Amino acid sequence: MLAIIGTALFYLLIFFVFLIVLIMVFVRFAKVFGGKPSMKQKQKYSQYPNHKQGKFTNLMPQFTVTEAPDFIDDSSHPKPTRRPDFDIPYVKIDPKSLEQKTKHTRITWFGHSTMLLEMDGKNILIDPMFGDVPSPVSFIGQKRYSKGLPLNIEELPPIDAVLLTHDHYDHLDYQSILKIKDKVKRFYVPLGLNAHLERWNVPASKIEELNWYETANLEGISFTLTPSHHYSGRSLSDRFESLWGGWVIKGALDNIYLSGDGGYGPHFKQIGAEYGPFDFAMIECGQYSRYWRQNHLFPEQSARVAVDVGAKLIMPIHWGAFTLAMHSWSSPVKRLLTKAKEFDIPVTTPKIGEQIVLGKEPSEQPNSTWWEKK
């Protein structure tokens, strides 16, 4: 009997070793995991103060939430509430309508953090994630809430610029990049992230990488990468090897801020003082947890960020598409609205695909409570 048990354990051990080797080989060679910066790149990055011992670092190794932490406990809800139990509405867009440009910037939300900005005649795509699941493989992870998107990826217009905040799967999608790369004129990315794009056959000549507070220009529109308190990584061994951040997008008429992912800290006031005030801000609001409070904003903090950066109108993003945390799927927007009202901050809450056009009064912007089941 002991011999039979010993033999079974032996074969079980062999199976697990084989499985681990198989996973390691898959991670090593599957293109979905992207690439790593070269030694030459790392030597270049080592000259920057936010790159130490071969890794990018945050502004602060540790920090304490500067508000009373009573809201932190409200971050876990029953599983049935973590995704909608009805078909959430979305607006389908006629691709030809994008040919008619507006004077001020027009913004289209695709859910989560994917946005199309039409500014000064240019099409700017942010964090292109058009896949159904924010995962390296389609059978892991929960699917997108909406049954469709405002535009199919093939219907996107020519893209003048793609801005990426970091390399996580819910922001940088391999299949989406493969489908859009030939219609994109230029990619603007944090340091090191170009390694992923180049492995996916995006020509290096189309990629411009930036460090925090560096600015790129595209025919009168400036893109400045700003700090956030977050991290990067797509595989088992590339954590902190590329940078992360938010963006200041400044055109002829509109000054826009994108927070990117990241916890609350004094950098927001610094960004507001240096680059604000902002006509519009897209602020992370969702996928929070007491365990991730250094790397994600709670909705109450999202409202405070709006104050810090001097935003005249804000929109919550990083919610409404995927379940990545344990809170109720609609809690982010509800909690943000409550705090924003206390701060007297205008908030726009468009449906997915419902367009925002700047230059209007905040009261004229989309503000329905579409997340409530009718």
Descriptive keywords:
Metallo-beta-lactamase, Chain A, 374 residues, seven-stranded mixed beta sheet, alpha/beta
| CATH class group | Alpha Beta
Strands, count: 15
Q: What's the CATH architecture? A: 4-Layer Sandwich
* Inertia-based shape: globular
- How much of the sequence lies in strands comes to 15-25%
Which structural category do the helix and sheet elements fall into? alpha/beta
- Are there runs of 5+ residues with pLDDT below 50, and where? 64-68
Helix proportion of residues, in percent? 10-25%
Q: Numbering strands along the chain, what is their spatial order in the largest sheet?
A: 8-7-6-5-4-3-15
Largest sheet: 7 strands, mixed
Total number of domains: 1
Multimeric organization? single chain
Radius of gyration based on Cα positions: 21 Å
By DSSP (H or I, 4+ residues per run), the number of helices equals 7
Order of helices and strands: HHEEEEEEHEHEEEEEHEHEHE
Q: Going by CATH, what is the homologous superfamily?
A: Ribonuclease Z/Hydroxyacylglutathione hydrolase-like
CATH topology: Metallo-beta-lactamase, Chain A
Mean pLDDT: 91
Question: What order do the helices and strands come in, and which of them pair?
Answer:
Blueprint: H1 2-29, H2 39-45, E1 51-52, E2 55-56, E3 106-109, E4 115-119, E5 122-126, E6 161-163, H3 174-180, E7 187-190, H4 194-199, E8 207-210, E9 215-218, E10 221-226, E11 246-250, E12 255-258, H5 267-275, E13 280-284, H6 299-309, E14 314-317, H7 331-343, E15 356-357
Parallel strand pairs: 5-6, 6-7, 7-8, 12-13, 13-14
Antiparallel strand pairs: 1-2, 3-4, 3-15, 4-5, 9-10, 10-11, 11-12
